């Protein structure tokens, strides 16, 4: 691992690291915030997954999460949104390829060689964080838009791994919306049964009652993608059927931007702290 940046921040440290990923077959970067209490009792970790066109720096520089994370004693880990490098397949559009990994394991060419973000987030990155930083094994996960989709499927596919999950304006039913259909067809092929393995609504519908964890979703009602790409009410209805503890909050006037995230990130951090710090 190689440190690329380090900045003092709210008495903690904001760092950016580069490492070679065996899972993704490329060099990856991630950002991490270490709170002031880091040198004492190993703190818990909140993983943040960003959305389309983003990398590991968007949340770090725009969300304003470090102040509250420092107060609560929570480590923030921000991975990239896709594999990177000259040898990694890409597309001309913003919603496929680099910056648009969709947090799944691709099975179709030319994507399969590198686009295995799910395995990276489930196995390789947490193992790296555990080995290189003094952190607790307690963790939670959150994300925005495509990253909200990623956070939800990570939690749904790994019962017992996370204490809680939250999302801002997540893609909850990618099988049924243009962003998801385009990505799934490219990365997974045309078999819709394979798509179900990466769709939050389908995963929650098939979940066991004992798998349920506290879930918080914030959605702005002025989000330009709400009607055609996001539709969080679909997941809320599945949660109602399954008695899954999901809170969906519709925030008046807010859009899809990081101004929306910055307005409510403190709520999400305190929500996760209730479960991480038990």
TrEMBL record:
Keywords: Hydrolase, Serine esterase
Gene3D superfamilies tied to this protein: alpha/beta hydrolase
The keyword DNA-binding appears for this protein: no
Listed EC numbers: 3.1.2.12
GO molecular function term, any single one: S-formylglutathione hydrolase activity
Reactions the enzyme catalyzes: S-formylglutathione + H2O = formate + glutathione + H(+)
Domain of life, source organism: Bacteria
Top-level EC class: hydrolase
One Pfam family this sequence matches: Esterase
Function: Serine hydrolase involved in the detoxification of formaldehyde.
Family: Belongs to the esterase D family.
Annotated PANTHER family: S-FORMYLGLUTATHIONE HYDROLASE, S-FORMYLGLUTATHIONE HYDROLASE YEIG
NCBIfam families: fghA_ester_D (TIGR02821)
Descriptive protein name: S-formylglutathione hydrolase
């Amino acid at each position: 691992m190689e440190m690329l940046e380090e900045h003092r921040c709210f008495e903690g440290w904001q760092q950016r690291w580069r490492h070679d990923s065996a899972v993704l077959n490329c060099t990856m970067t991630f950002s991490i915030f270490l709170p002031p209490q880091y040198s004492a009792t190993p703190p818990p970790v909140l993983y943040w997954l960003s959305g389309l066109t983003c990398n590991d720096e968007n949340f770090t520089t725009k969300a304003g999460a470090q102040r509250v994370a420092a107060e609560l004693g929570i480590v923030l880990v921000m991975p990239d949104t896709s594999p990177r490098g000259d040898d990694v397949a890409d597309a001309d559009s913003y919603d496929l390829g680099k910056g648009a990994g969709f947090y799944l394991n691709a099975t179709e060419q030319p994507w399969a060689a590198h686009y295995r973000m799910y395995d990276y987030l489930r196995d390789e990155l947490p193992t790296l964080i555990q080995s290189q930083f003094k952190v607790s094994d307690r963790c939670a996960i959150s994300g925005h838009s495509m990253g909200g989709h990623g956070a939800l499927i990570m939690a749904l596919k790994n019962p017992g791994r996370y204490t809680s999950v939250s999302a801002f304006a997540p893609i909850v039913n990618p099988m049924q919306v243009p962003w998801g259909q385009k990505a799934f067809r490219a990365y997974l092929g045309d078999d819709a049964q394979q798509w179900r393995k990466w769709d939050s609504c389908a995963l929650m519908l098939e979940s066991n009652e004992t798998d349920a964890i506290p879930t918080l979703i914030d959605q702005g009602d002025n989000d330009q993608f709400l009607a055609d790409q996001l539709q969080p009410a679909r997941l809320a209805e599945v949660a109602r059927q399954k008695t899954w503890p999901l809170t969906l909050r519709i925030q008046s006037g807010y859009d899809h931007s990081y101004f929306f995230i910055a307005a409510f990130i403190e709520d999400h951090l305190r929500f996760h702290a209730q479960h991480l710090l038990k």
